[in-house]
What does this fold into?
Amino acid sequence: MSSLELKDLYDGFRDPNVIKGYQKLIAKEAQKLPRTINIMEVCGGHTHTIMKYGLTQLLPKNINFIHGPGCPVCIMPKERIDHAYRLAQQSDVILLTLGDMIKVPGSLGTLQDARAKGADVRYVYSPMDALKVAEENPDKKIIFFAIGFETTTPMTAALIDIVIKRNIKNIFFHINHVTVPEAMELLIEGSDNDHCIDAFIGPSHVSVISGAKIYAVFPEKYHIPVVVSGFEPVDVMESIYMIVKQFNEGRSDLEVQYKRLVNFEGNIKAQAFVEHFFEKVDLFKWRGIGHIPRSALKLRSEFAALDAEVIYKELLPYEEINDHKLCICGDILRGRAKPQDCSVFGTACKPTSPLGSCMVSSEGACAAYYKYGNLI
Amino acid sequence: MTKTVTLAQGNGGAENAELISKIFYKQFKNEILEKSEDAAIIDGGRLAFTTDSFTVSPLFFDGGDIGKLSICGTCNDLAMMGAKPTYMTCAVIVEEGFSIEELETIVASMKKELEINGANIVCGDTKVVPRGAVDKIFINTTGVGIVQKRGISSNCVSTADTIIVSNEIGKHGATIFANREGMEFSSDLKSDCTSLWPLVEKLLAEGIEITAMRDATRGGVAAVLNELAKQSKVCIEVQEDALPVSDTVRGICEILGFEAYNLANEGTFILAVKSSDADRAVEILKTFEAGERAAVIANVTHQYDGRVILLSAWGSKRFMDLPTGELLPRIC
It folds into this structure.
């Protein structure tokens, strides 16, 4: 048997002829639509795919995208980034986090700034990298600033499990894991007739863990179709076609386009792992949107000895910090505005000096518009 | 700009350009510097003159080491101005406790690469600093080259030109990332670190009409194409599927969320040549191992002056922007 090569992961899913084929199918099907439909791609990864591959340029005018709030870096409120900043400033702390997070400004600055001023801030590819850092720095406290949606939470849980089993004394956790469906419900309930969300494209990697079942509420309760989609251009084009077909056939179903790995139940073992270590917080602030009930996780109280938020309670600031007053990210995330409608887009607000949440990570709507332009 | 220097300001991209123009150009401003070429053209056009510092980590990587890099890097900048690398300086800052054996290996690599270029180190400086004052070893080299073909400049690209890349892109950046992070791939991935003068010499000898050349180091092919578009006030339209990228580099980019055209190269360059010479230039480059996958990648137009556009194989287009920030892996 030949082994799987890296290129097998994307080969075929960017095939020009397949993409053009879907373009024709969508155009034909969209002619039957009675009005413009608004599709929200929940996840920043999909926003990135749509902009990077120029997919909006291939679609008829009566299909409109609303770029959703599913970028864990973008929605991180300044208050939480300030936590990371304060923790990193401690001389005996090494703060670890994932990728883009170190670029996002809180009210004190970015973690990059903290590093330039002497803090030990490092980014890791996997939470497991924390084990090596902890081993090499036995006299330091390693704090893993954990971020991400359902996709990354199981890896944090796996690290906690190892830390407990091996009795590692110098790894701690600051938990900022958020969950997708609660934010989606809030956006539906806050929408009006002019800015309604007609359908969702759901992120496949979330459902690899949590199953397609987490989206069942949307067709059932709100009669809004959901298609769980992969991240390659062919995946997204096929998902758009599936959504338009649902409209024309008068259906609102939960469908899975990414059948390669997603089923209804998801990864039960990973779910149990997450359940074991984490519980929901009552209220979590999403940058640009506001407080959303039960939309984030925290460590269960029996693991308080690992919880940096408990250990450093006295050190961490908890005052509310408002979003920048010129920023319209809240409206963008609700589909009421596009990035170019913002008065500071591309001028005072750029990827190098973001004012609002949608500009901070390459997966935010504003950053994607800025980076790839909107040529057509 | 920020109050303290950040790593992002050394990325070869937008923040780097801002730091250079607002701090250094502001004070040093003069006609030669402001041309922003890979090497300064001095002495009435007779000589090319440039300098570069090398701080790579790890010091030894697949396909080269800091010594080889320190000669290739500076000589390539001279070659990009159509100049034959001739005289060089070498300044080394080395950390207390550094292995003599490794130092010998590094200097031997430098010698080998000097021979390929036909250049000599004619003066130098050595400093040893206390542990922690530098990370192992930093090397600076300065080079003087004798211009063989005058008028090659990044400010002169026009619609009469066609854009070529000399080989597969992103190999050095991908190798350094993989080596630094201990990622192991069962493949032959190695840095493209190589001296480019032999390729340039041949192109000139064959009479290829070269308008501009620039080696795609930090910031990658995207940074160089953007510089050419801005400096020459033209639009460069790149066919995305024409960019030569190996499966391994593409795979690493997929895993880490990078674009191959943002990754550094150390032996791959962009050429703007008269369109009628383009195919012949590609054929000549292909006779070298370092040019095996040379290809025509772009046309020059005036559609969006100062910008680079990527055309997808399915008819959509987007900007190919300067990389911003540190290259960081996407998280999901």
